[in-house]
Design brief:
With 414 residues, the protein is an alpha+beta fold. The protein has four domains: 2-85, no CATH class; 101-186 and 260-268, no CATH class; 201-252, no CATH class; 317-413, Leucine-rich Repeat Variant (Alpha Horseshoe), CATH 1.25.10. The chain is built from 14 helices and 18 strands. The radius of gyration is 25 Å and the shape is flat. The termini are far apart.
């Protein structure tokens, strides 16, 4: 059943990575990229006569890789889908619906942790904060009820211990922060505690007529979760629920559990503490960085509060020099755009800086962008660097550089 289910969804879903031919891929790099982003999902290994699936949970491979394959792809899915599809022996995870994001402008509060929680209280958010620690590779969630922190899960710690550890890491490590709304009925169900009452593989199998007490049914598909809450046999809430999902979890409310008291994150914070650089979704606001030290600044700053660089001096620089400085930008999406622009402008003075990047860069996607940029440039030095990249340790980079060199040679012959 597992292979048929995954094969069916693999035809419907777009892979996050791939398909890559094995001769053009460093598989260890792909595993590292998924690990650092804390993704969950599965690998699909294909050959001419067979295919093989291997699960990944929070960036960690949970299965083996075949020795013999031609192509590999990675599909990103919800955590609980991976657990059920591969029958992993894991403790039940709270599936949190992330289809209603809340916009919190961190720039307006200067990335101050204390002000972040104060803002959640001002907004009266009922839902949760999703936290991914990209340094320690830990995931966490903070449940909110009308802006108050009511429960925390982080790196295997629950409650106050989890909150203390999370607050420490927010000020020390680069983390992803996202805020989502949940219906108050859902938060109230999850707070006191619950029992996992069963897993079903079709909506028709659910014993809806037997749900006398407070019960939550969660639809689990590769791309989202959905909720259906019953009270005394009657439906009281439906949000994002799918009647054609591959899995359904049934949770029973624990009447004997006590609803925890709200926690006070502000009382645990000593002095001024600031969030590290946070990766945003495209719909989130622009971040402002000092072009000298690349610390986060306010758009109204005239001098960098971290290194003292005169930002007015930067604004007076020629555009070409600004592009070269931006090659050190901490956000990879911006860095890729800068490399692309340098290639399109055929900016010869940037070539020594591109050579330095090629020598120290470890991200294959950025290296591919560098090869593409060099292919658009007319300088003989660009050809020399492409030849050097054709000997790179990453097969995918070597292949890209060879492709550009062959195209250039073909163009010369024509």
């Amino acid at each position: 059943m597992q292979e048929l289910l995954l094969a069916d969804y693999s035809l419907k879903l777009k892979p996050l990575y791939g398909p890559f031919h094995r001769d053009m891929l460093n598989l260890s790099w792909l595993v590292e990229a998924i690990s650092s982003s804390l993704r969950s999902g599965y690998f699909l290994f294909q050959s001419s006569d067979k295919f093989y699936f291997s699960p990944v949970l929070d960036g960690k491979p949970e299965g083996t890789f075949p020795d013999d394959f031609e192509y590999v792809s990675f599909f990103s899915t919800m955590e609980n889908f991976v657990i059920h599809a591969f029958q992993l022996q894991k403790e039940h995870r709270i599936p949190l619906y992330s289809q209603r994001p809340v916009w919190v402008n961190l720039e307006s509060i200067n990335f101050n942790i204390r002000e972040f929680f104060a803002k959640l209280m001002d907004f009266g958010v009922t839902g949760f904060v999703s936290v991914d620690n990209r340094i320690k590779l830990l995931k966490g969630n903070i449940l909110l009820n009308k802006g108050a922190v009511v429960k925390t899960y982080y790196g295997g710690l629950v409650g106050l211990d989890g909150l203390k550890r999370l607050l420490e890491d927010l000020g020390e490590d680069v983390c992803t922060l996202k805020v989502y709304e949940l219906h108050e009925e859902i938060v109230n169900f999850l707070l006191p505690g619950y029992e996992f009452a069963g897993l079903y593989k079709s909506f028709e199998q659910l014993p809806l007529h037997e749900m006398k007490d407070m019960t939550m049914v969660i639809s689990v598909s590769p791309e989202k979760y959905g909720y259906l809450i019953y009270k005394s046999g009657k439906e009281v809430l439906m949000e994002g629920f799918e009647k054609d999902a591959p899995f359904y979890e049934v949770l029973m409310s624990c009447h004997t559990s006590v609803t925890p008291e709200p926690m006070e994150p502000l009382s645990l914070l000593g002095g001024e503490r600031h969030l590290r650089i946070v990766k945003y979704d495209p719909e989130h606001p622009v971040l402002y960085f000092c072009p000298a030290c690349w610390s986060v600044i306010s758009k109204d700053d005239r001098v960098c509060p971290n290194c003292g660089y005169d930002l007015g001096e930067f604004h007076n620089l020629p555009y070409e020099y600004k592009l070269i400085m931006a090659l050190e930008h901490p956000m990879k999406e911006m860095k890729r755009n800068v490399i692309y622009t340098i290639g399109r402008k055929d900016l010869e003075i940037a070539i020594p800086h591109l050579e330095v990047m090629i020598a120290k860069e470890t991200d294959p996607l950025l290296l591919i962008e560098l090869a593409d940029a060099l292919s658009r440039m007319s300088s003989p030095e660009a050809v020399r660097l492409l030849r050097a990249m054709a000997q790179h340790r990453y097969p995918v980079v070597r292949s890209r550089a060879h492709l550009h060199l062959q195209r250039r040679l073909k163009h010369v012959h024509e």
